[in-house]
Write a structure and sequence with these properties.
about 450 residues, mainly beta, about 35% strand
Length: about 450
């Protein structure tokens, strides 16, 4: 084939020997050869093993699982649209990464990875219509810049990394995988938006809406993951917005710095009072949480006693609550001593109605407590932007209440270089994702 390669190494005929009382019987099973196709000017449909460049301004159709081979890459230029329409079967397609996948949208012309327009409905928000980006332990690099991903999740198909299980929006499995997610939007994810099991991560200036149906976190970190999470906006997470944990078999300790984020209405779709802490450190993880704005979340910042409490600090964060039940959980009732051990002296923690951050355009007291507890019947506006402007109005107590006197995690990027390198916004003394001098989240 003109633009294809055929791989047969590792896929040779398999000879299986069966013993019986009479004689040995040979059964020969021929595995199909893998065809790797280069993406060209004529490419419209994406499926199977492919590599190359998705060209600016073009729309592509994900008709089956798109697999990036080991040692190869797919690069999406700006203004690229991928429509995950599948092959008509019950399991939506996914992008399986064994090599690298890079999406270089821009502010002027972002990329869109979604489903057919007729399927972009309220009823499908948690339907998990396609599988997002699923990486094997050989994946080298995932970069998403100015990219919108929608309607993610659903069960993984046979032979895929999450076969038979609900897929996360993005999943990585190696301490060697580097992931940069900047200035992106995530809308409608059935479970975790991103679950790294090890690796280097940078999540900067992103916006999350409708993430997690009845469970799932924004970033659900597992063993051996290091990096920074800054200037993100989270509307209505099912459980935690960000959960650093060192759970697993990694030889590198999880170390995550969470700073200058704005989290509203988080934690209410997960039943019970053992979750929903918006920022939650557990199971040997270390790091810190500074300069965050926490508004009407089910619970406050939380550090469990099995976290690396000697190496965690949470300070200069602002808590706001419309209802007393929220105030009662500012210090989570199942982790009082351990959370108090890591809280600094500069957190703004008061009672009902205290420390209003004074957003430019957002009715901070619009929802009743019953609406927070309504599960699937929650108002749409509780979990999405809906015209909100979370910048700080003049006179906000969040202005100048933060600190820059801490160090973010130093990450040695090897593959994420050049245009793929993270643009890490340093801490700002204004709390939240929108410092008054600019330079934070650019989604208004």
């Amino acid at each position: 084939m003109k633009n294809s390669r055929i791989l047969s190494i590792g896929f040779l005929s398999l000879v299986v020997m069966f013993s019986s009382c009479k004689k040995d019987e040979e059964v020969i099973i021929d595995e199909p050869e893998i065809v790797i196709t280069q993406i060209t000017d004529e490419t419209e449909n994406l499926s199977g093993f492919m590599y190359g460049t998705l060209q600016s301004g073009k729309t592509y159709y994900l008709t089956g699982d798109l697999i990036v081979p080991e040692g190869m890459e797919i690069v999406a230029e700006n203004c690229v649209t991928i429509i995950a329409q599948g092959d008509g079967g019950p399991i939506g397609p996914e992008i399986t990464v064994r090599g690298s996948f890079v999406s270089l949208g821009t502010e002027d012309c972002p990329n869109l990875f979604s489903v057919p327009e007729s399927q972009r409905t309220e009823a499908n928000i948690f339907a998990g219509l396609w599988g997002g980006i699923q990486c094997t332990d050989k994946a080298e690099l995932v970069v998403l810049k100015w990219t919108r991903m929608e309607y993610l999740g659903g069960e993984g198909g046979p032979g895929t990394p999450r076969a038979g299980s609900i897929r996360y929006g993005i999943w990585t499995l190696s301490s060697q995988t580097e992931v940069v997610i900047e200035d992106c939007w995530f809308y409608g994810v059935k479970d975790d938006v991103y679950r790294p099991v090890g690796g280097k991560v940078s999540l900067m200036r992103n916006t999350f809406e409708f993430c997690g149906e009845t469970g799932g976190d924004g970033l659900n970190v597992k063993a051996g993951t290091v990096g920074n999470i800054g200037y993100n906006v989270f509307y209505g997470s099912a459980t935690n917005a960000f959960k650093p944990s060192n759970e697993g078999d990694g030889t590198i300790q999880t170390n995550i710095m969470v700073y200058n984020n704005t989290i509203v209405n988080g934690g209410w779709r997960r039943p019970g009072m053992t979750r929903g802490a918006n920022i939650n450190f557990e199971v040997g993880a270390r790091g810190g949480a500074y300069n965050n704005i926490i508004v009407n979340c089910k619970r406050g910042l939380r550090a469990l006693e099995d976290a690396d409490l000697q190496n965690i600090t949470m300070d200069n964060n602002l808590y706001y609550a419309t209802h007393q039940e929220m105030v009662d959980e500012f210090i989570p009732s199942d982790a009082v001593a351990s959370t108090q051990q890591v809280l600094g002296n500069n957190n703004m923690i008061g009672g009902v109605g205290d420390n209003n951050p004074m957003f430019v355009n957002y009715d901070i007291d619009q929802f009743s407590y019953d609406q927070y507890e309504a599960g699937e019947a929650q108002p749409m506006a509780m979990n999405s932007n809906s015209g909100a402007d979370l910048r700080l109005a003049p006179g906000s107590p969040a202005i100048g209440a933060g600190t820059t006197n801490f160090s973010i995690v130093n990450v040695n990027w090897v593959k994420a270089v050049g245009a793929r390198a993270p643009i890490v916004t340093p801490p700002n003394a204004d709390l939240g994702a929108y410092p008054t001098g600019g330079g934070g989240n650019l989604h208004y």
